[in-house]
Each structure stands twice: as structure tokens, then as C-alpha cells.
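Note to self: keep these together.
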Amino acid sequence: MSHNKIKIKQALPVAIICGILGGLLFIYTKGLPIKGYYSILTYVTVLIGSTLIVKYQNKMELNFLNIISFGTVVFMIMSYVERANFYFVQYPERDFFTYNSLFTFLMILGFAVFSSLILAILFRVKRKSI
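Structure:
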């Protein structure tokens, strides 16, 4: 790792900010008349955008594991901002922590890892052979 790159832990504030802003953007786009699969574009846009931010600010070395970790954190935060809005703003009478919460968490985690894997393949860096 070069000296101008920093570790994934130090890119965590960028992941948190991008995740929160992405979750708020997702909540906003759900209110638009365009519904369905188009709202998935919000996740794709935020994941690619946040990875480009850390790439061009030299916040972390873009290796396969770092991209998967970073993308998973951003995706999970986005999803839980949207879930918090759903449970605390739209339907406050529902319980947030139930037995199904574990299944929901695992499902969101699975989608997060899968989408981050695709993101890592997209941003894969080819090393030059000397």
C-alpha cells in the first residue's frame, strides 16, 4: 500500500455519510411517481458514487476486499436509514425489533455483499506486470 492511501477504517466516515445521504435519497425517490425497479437505481448510483469519491480522494486502496467492505457498509446504512423511516415515521405502530428482524438483517446483508461483489468486479484494478 502506498503512503498516500489510507486504510478502510479511515474511509469509514465517508461510508457513513454516503450511506445516510443515500438512504435519504432513497426515501425521497420512493415518494416520486416513478416506482418499482427504478428505485434500485438509487442504490446503484450511491454505491458507484461513494466508491468513486473514495477512489478520487485517495481515501483507501481499491483492492477487492476493501471495495466489498466499503460497499457493504454503505448498502447496510442506506437500507437501515430507509427501514428506520418505514418503522418510525410511516408506520410507528409497528415493532422495529421482532423475530423477523434477524431474517431481514440477514437478507439485507446478503444483498449488500452481493452488490458489493459486483461493485468490486466493476472497479477491479489490473496490476501491471514488470
